[in-house]
């Protein structure tokens, strides 16, 4: 079922979450172990992230280093199929522009279609680790909006190969990313919203936001979207802080601010257990306020760890 159908049929705020594919060499049971504790909350859908190749330097016997590329977390589409058919829950594979030609994109979408997936989250992806600028493949997409155009084209039966006439139309519900604190490359929120609208005009059906810790920023973002003419559902994304490392890692990696009150509480923490308690309490307050405001769904970034999300959801819904 499509994410937008789940939203339309819901009587209250839905619950969904996101997992990462297991590291190469690990069992898929690792992933299931992160999912199963959350099943009692009836997630409407589960997202699975996509991880492009990374460059690593391998030390050779002669002391030199060889630059090789590796994909540490493969399997997004097959994992989505495994989850969908094991638990009967809808899945949302993430699809990125980075490392994909338009042909690769079409083939990935066909796999999703054949496997019975109704949803896809269309993303540009970040620059390759160690590079400062995003570079598309020669015949790939430079931003998410042209990828959305391609998916919309397939939903209308248009394939890349001109010889295909009357191609079978796919029927994907397309999600895209939104940034309450703006995307880090955008000059300002206004230009970022202009490009977000471009994605919606290209056929995106809903938006999921980057994590944020200040609900006021989310509410202001939704207002700004509505003023810019963006009418599709906007799903807030939340991530519980659970470790001392998160305190600097999350703002640095995801270009988000921690509100003063949260930062003050975190500053007093001496170990991960104390951070986790602060993070969970903050997450509960954020979730309760978002539910009271009537958001359609709250999407939790579990990053494979379900216990903090479980405590937040069981104390808020
Ligand atoms: P875009 O919408 O293409 O925007 C990227 C930047 O370009 C923005 O600054 C925008 O303002 C600007 N821009 C857009 N269009 C144009 C244009 N026509 N001309 C000029 N500028 C333009 N990354 C992964 O690798 N894998 C994942 O699974 C993944 N999941 C994510 C899930 C969510 C909910 C979110 C919020 C992010 C996720 N990301 C993931 C990270 C995402 O790939 C990065 O944030 C990436 O840098 C931007 O992706 P986007 O789809 O928002 O890009």
Short key terms for the protein model shown above:
single chain; 317 residues; alpha/beta; TIM Barrel; eight-stranded parallel β-barrel; two-stranded antiparallel ribbon; 10 strands; binds flavin-adenine dinucleotide
Helices and strands in order, then pairings?
Blueprint lengths: L2 H7 L4 E6 L8 H8 L9 E4 L5 E6 L5 E6 L5 H12 L2 E7 L5 H13 L4 E5 L20 H12 L17 E6 L10 H13 L4 E6 L3 H13 L6 E5 L5 H11 L5 H8 L4 H21 L4 E5 L5 H10 L1
Parallel strand pairs: 1-2, 1-10, 2-5, 5-6, 6-7, 7-8, 8-9, 9-10
Antiparallel strand pairs: 3-4
Helix pairs in contact: 4-5, 5-6, 10-11
Bound molecules: flavin-adenine dinucleotide (FAD).
The site of flavin-adenine dinucleotide (FAD) has 23 residues, from strand 5, helix 5, helix 6 and strand 8.
What does this structure look like?
It is a single chain. This protein has 317 residues and is an alpha/beta fold. The chain has a single domain (3-314), classed as TIM Barrel (Alpha-Beta Barrel), CATH 3.20.20.220. It is built from eleven helices and ten strands. It has helices at residues 3-9, 28-35, 76-87, 102-114, 144-155, 189-201, 215-227, 244-254, 260-267, 272-292, 307-316, and strands at residues 14-19, 45-48, 54-59, 65-70, 90-96, 119-123, 173-178, 206-211, 234-238, 297-301. The strands form two sheets. The chain has an eight-stranded parallel barrel with strand order 1-2-5-6-7-8-9-10, surrounded by seven helices. Strands 3-4 form a two-stranded antiparallel sheet. A hairpin with a 5-residue loop joins strand 3 and strand 4 (65-70). The longest helix has 21 residues, at 272-292. The mean pLDDT is 96. Residues 49-50, 52, 94, 96, 123-126, 143-145, 177, 183, 185-186, 191-192, 195, 199, 208, 210, 237 line the site of flavin-adenine dinucleotide. Flavin-adenine dinucleotide binds at residues 49-50, 52, 94, 96, 123-126, 143-145, 177, 183, 185-186, 191-192, 195, 199, 208, 210, 237.
């Amino acid at each position: 079922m499509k994410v937008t159908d789940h939203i339309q049929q819901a009587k209250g705020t839905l619950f969904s979450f996101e997992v990462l594919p297991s590291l190469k060499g690990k069992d898929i049971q690792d992933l299931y172990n992160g999912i199963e504790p959350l099943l009692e909350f009836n997630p409407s859908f589960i997202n699975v992230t996509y991880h492009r190749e990374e460059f690593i330097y391998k030390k050779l016997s002669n002391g030199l280093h060889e630059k090789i590329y590796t994909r540490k977390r493969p399997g997004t589409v097959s994992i989505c199929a495994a989850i969908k058919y094991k638990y009967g829950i809808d899945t949302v594979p993430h699809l990125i522009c980075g490392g994909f030609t338009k042909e690769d994109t079409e083939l990935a979408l066909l796999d999703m279609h054949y496997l019975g997936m109704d949803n896809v989250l269309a993303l540009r992806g970040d620059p390759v680790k160690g590079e400062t600028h995003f570079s598309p493949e020669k015949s790939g997409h430079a931003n998410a909006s042209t990828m959305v155009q391609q998916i919309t084209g397939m939903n209308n039966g248009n394939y890349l190969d001109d010889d295909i006439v009357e191609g079978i139309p796919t029927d994907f519900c397309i999600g895209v990313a939104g940034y309450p604190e703006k995307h880090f490359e955008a000059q300002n929120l206004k230009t970022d919203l202009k490009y977000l609208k471009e994605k919606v005009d290209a056929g995106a059906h809903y938006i999921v936001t980057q994590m944020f810790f200040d609900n006021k920023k989310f509410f202001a973002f939704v207002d700004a979207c509505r003023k810019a003419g963006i009418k599709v559902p906007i799903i807030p994304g939340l991530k519980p802080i659970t470790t001392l490392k998160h305190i600097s890692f999350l703002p640095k990696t995801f270009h988000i601010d921690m509100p003063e009150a949260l930062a003050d509480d975190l500053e007093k923490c001496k170990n991960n257990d104390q951070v986790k308690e602060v993070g969970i309490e903050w997450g509960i307050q954020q979730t309760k306020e978002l539910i009271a405001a009537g958001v359609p769904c709250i999407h939790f970034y579990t990053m494979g760890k379900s216990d903090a999300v479980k405590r937040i959801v069981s104390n808020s819904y």
